[in-house]
Amino acid sequence: MRVPIPVTSKPVKSQAVAPGPAAANAAAASFAALTDRLEYMSATDIELVRKAYRFADEAHLGQMRKNGEPYITHPIAVAALCTEWKLDAQALCAALMHDCMEDCGVTKIELIEKFGSPVAELVDGLTKLEKLEFNTREENQAESFRKMLLAMARDVRVILIKLADRTHNMRTMGDMPRSKWGRISSETIEIYAPIAHRLGLNQIYRELQDLSFRHLLPWRYAVLTKAVSRARNRRRDLIQKVQSELETVFAQAGMQVRISGREKTLHSIYRKMADKHLSFAQVTDIYGFRVIVPEVIDCYTALGLLHQLYKPVPGKFKDHIAIGKVNGYQSLHTTLVGPSGVNVEFQMRTEAMHLVAESGVAAHWLYKTHKSVNAQSERLGTQWLQSLLDIQSETRDAAEFWDHVKVDLFPDAVYVFTPKSQIMALPRGATVVDFAYAIHSRVGDHAMAAKINGDQVPLRTELKNGDVVEVITASVSAPNPAWLGFVRTGRARSKIRHHLKTMAQTESTQLGEKLLSQALRAEGIDTLPGNEAALQPLWDKLLRFTGNRNRSDLLMDIGLGKRIASIVAKRLVVLLGERGQKPDALLMTRERFTAHESVSQGAITLDGSENASVSYAHCCHPIPGDEIVGYLGRGEGLAVHRSQCANARKLQQKDSERFIGVEWSDEPVRSFETAIEVSVVNGKGVLARVAGAMAAAEADIVHVDMGQETAQDTAELRFMVSVRDQQHLEAVLRQLKRTPAVIKAERQTLRS
């Protein structure tokens, strides 16, 4: 249940200390508080909003806010904020009734009957957002935000109403217990402010940041407020002089412009001071000017006039018109040395750009008839919202979904080009792989190599502004799990995980089929029943026994170790017996006689091509030639250990039925990692000589650990090396022992 908080929004100001509180409350709670703001609507729409007000007022009857005002004042204030964006009647109805389902027991069916399905869907979407607790268990919080973002992706009005609700709650935070300030303010600055920025809602973004800063760090907020006020008084003459000179210059050029001042928010000043270790006096760009002009060409003309009036600061010019920001923002930025040597920032933009810069996706409702604004708002809103739906389609886990989305909630971006000169905006720190997935998921999945500005580069290379990126693909290439360590975008991360998960499921299913077939042979059945329609009743009975949805699910569970193949096989033999198929006694005897004495199923042959379905234990690092055993962990697939491994022996004592026989293929298809220890006499270049010896023996060094000990006469070096088999490892050790300065070289002792 959301805690009610009092109203102090612009349209509905709290007057708790004013005389006649009953009269003030009645005014704030009446529909008249909204009437003057609905002039942009038709009479029919106004009547619909009035009907929603009456419904909400009746639903909240008797509920009061913390300061004693009627609860209805909060929905009215939220609706009033929505009118600033000129939202339609459906949205205002939802704003007025956004707490009805949550707090008053109103059903969705009732709302559909009275106001229609679109309004009911909006209220339902908002209702799902209400029980957000920033300090609850992580998965619950992730699920709440997932629902919010998906509701927003389906209808952006949901998040506009939610942001209005959050803004009003933050404005009235002073009446909340101080114990709740931190949680609500942290949630606002970490979640809602970035969403507002991502959707281009600059006014809300700035206000939410400052309100959060005010309640998270009240003392620092108060100190900065006084400092900015003093600076404003000191520089009043300077600002007036700059404004006067600007008006004169543009008048002489015959340009019609609108000049307004711009002041940096307290939160952005504080962040700049903290990030760059500056004092307040060293922050020079607190004040600036916006120059609003009629046409795009006028922005560049105004820039030329300003550069003639004041000297530009080198490196402080940005053209966000030719290359707009990812949230649709467009303006020219330049910093000039103004009177008295003070740096002043100027922004040049058209009215349409100014509208999008301040209102983002809400500009769509502000001026529906303005085609450029409409197209711009549609473009900036659709791309990110569609990406949320794409990620959701591949990520059913709420925590994983939220993890993907969080990386997209930041302001910085780099702008790069395709070989055909198409510009693309990506997050700062994005790599070639992010670029590949931004083009198309197939390009990302099959990326093999890349060129930046014509030069061959690794796929993990970070992109810089202006790079021309070409991705080289190959049909045999597939996503690498290591990519997850450096990709930056939520889209790339979700696509890679989806592909790896699908691949792992396929491999686990294949392993499960192999294990069940071998377990059946041990029970005297030569072949695993197929997937034909005639055998479906057999599989249905088996699936009822195991609790799986289908045959593939069962086989995958066996491959992942969630089901024991021998138990499933015994049940399957019973079911086959009911159909008249009897076990082959000779086959049963032969299989059980030749089976590994310490395991319950036949042996699996390993050649290194198993990928995700089989892992090689890090405690003992088995390589071809070692005696090995396989442990089918619960949900972890098959783990291969050396038979002398202490960990494997412990598991065998308490979980022996999960061990299966494994053996090496005669021709492994790849090399395997193992650990060796080398004792050396300390001296100049000794590490290089040891590495050279390994290279001469054709062993790849994967990792080296030289320990933390201070310099001694001797040192212990530990290497992780990649070798083909035991014979190759022995050759490497012989080569090391012949190396000067090497005292001892041996395979790392098995550890538990």
Descriptive notes:
By secondary structure, this protein is an alpha+beta fold. It folds into 5 domains: 1-127, Hypothetical protein af1432 (Orthogonal Bundle), CATH 1.10.3210; 131-216 and 371-407, no CATH class; 223-366, 2-Layer Sandwich (Beta Polymerase, domain 2); 498-664, no CATH class; 672-747, 2-Layer Sandwich (Alpha-Beta Plaits). Helices cover 48% and strands 15% of the residues. The chain has 30 helices and 20 strands. It has a 5-stranded mixed β-sheet with strand order 1-2-5-4-3. The chain has a 4-stranded mixed β-sheet with strand order 12-14-13-15. Strand 13 (628-633) and strand 14 form a beta hairpin. Helix 3 (43-59) runs parallel beside helix 5 (89-96), helix 9 crosses helix 19 and helix 10 runs parallel beside helix 12 (202-216). The longest helix has 33 residues, at 490-522. The chain is globular. The model is unreliable at 1-20, 129-137, 367-378 and 595-602 (pLDDT under 50).
What's the SSE blueprint?
Elements: H1 21-28, H2 32-35, H3 43-59, H4 73-83, H5 89-96, H6 100-103, H7 108-115, H8 117-127, H9 138-154, H10 157-171, H11 181-198, H12 202-216, H13 218-234, H14 236-252, E1 258-263, H15 266-276, E2 287-293, H16 296-309, E3 311-319, E4 332-337, E5 343-350, H17 351-359, H18 363-366, H19 371-394, H20 398-406, E6 413-417, E7 423-427, H21 432-439, H22 441-445, E8 447-452, E9 455-457, E10 469-473, H23 490-522, H24 536-546, H25 551-560, H26 565-578, H27 585-594, E11 604-606, E12 614-616, E13 628-633, E14 637-642, H28 646-654, E15 659-660, E16 662-664, E17 672-681, H29 686-696, E18 700-705, E19 714-723, H30 726-737, E20 742-747
Parallel strand pairs: 2-5, 11-16, 12-14
Antiparallel strand pairs: 1-2, 3-4, 4-5, 6-7, 8-9, 8-10, 13-14, 13-15, 17-19, 17-20, 18-19
Helix pairs in contact: 3-5, 4-5, 4-10, 5-8, 5-10, 7-8, 8-10, 9-19, 9-20, 10-12, 11-12, 12-13, 13-15, 14-16, 17-19, 19-23, 20-23, 21-23, 23-25, 23-26, 24-26, 29-30
